[in-house]
Amino acid sequence: MVTDGGLETDLIFHHGQELPYFAAFPLLDSEKGRSLLTEYYDGYAAIAERTGTALMLESATWRASSDWGHLLGYSDDALARTNRAAIAMLDGLRDRYRATVPEVVVGGAVGPRGDGYHPDRQLDADEAAEYHAPQIEAFAQAGADIVTAYTLTGAGEAIGIVRAARAAGLPVAISFTVETDGRLPSGDSLQTAITMVDEAGGPDYFLVNCAHPAHIKLALADQSAERIGGVRCNASTKSHAELDEATELDEGDLELLASTHEQLKPLLPNLSIVGGCCGTDARHVAALWGL
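Above: the chain's sequence. Below: its structure in token form.
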């Protein structure tokens, strides 16, 4: 499946959007915002059409949970409506692409409760399940096909999200991020984190996102690699700390991104979802698909 790139960085740096707290979900509140999101998704649908592959549409809801929503003035009820609206929009796009894309999967995107670049503390599973349940329940009510949690920094929050998704009756995927040394921000290895989550019940599959392929390569071990079904890479080779301080977009070296990503394929026997993360746009994702 083709999936999208770095939604927030694309909108901020290429479209001049102000996204306080890196939150794209307020765009769903206006016709102009929805049109911009549609234009964004159209670029990835075109890649899926050209490659003859399925398309995974992920909702613009990475920040649409209560802590972040409250900072932006959204009540819990308003957040639930927004999360449902995000899935409804993607359902409409599924119809839009039906004639040109073989299959479209609609996913509800969840982000960490804290800051993925500055994880001040690690959530335990019970706290995470309670916190993320309202957003995941809204996805289920709206008919999402799956929920995927992106940029997670530790196993505890991942376990809680899996519990909340299972309770809501949704398939679930967990995507960890890694630092330049290939370890999670929690300090755990990717293999350790995957093992911990799997021992607690486990998601349908794992991904890795928000890291350059060179850093993801350092994270891979034989046991963990078999559970990874998707990769969404950063364009830049910089660390999270460096990217967080940057005032200009680092779009990376496109050739290096594609060639290093190619090195991951023999290490990931079940890789089936390929897209991008921070600093990437449709050009980068097309390159990852050999276009």
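The mean pLDDT is 95.
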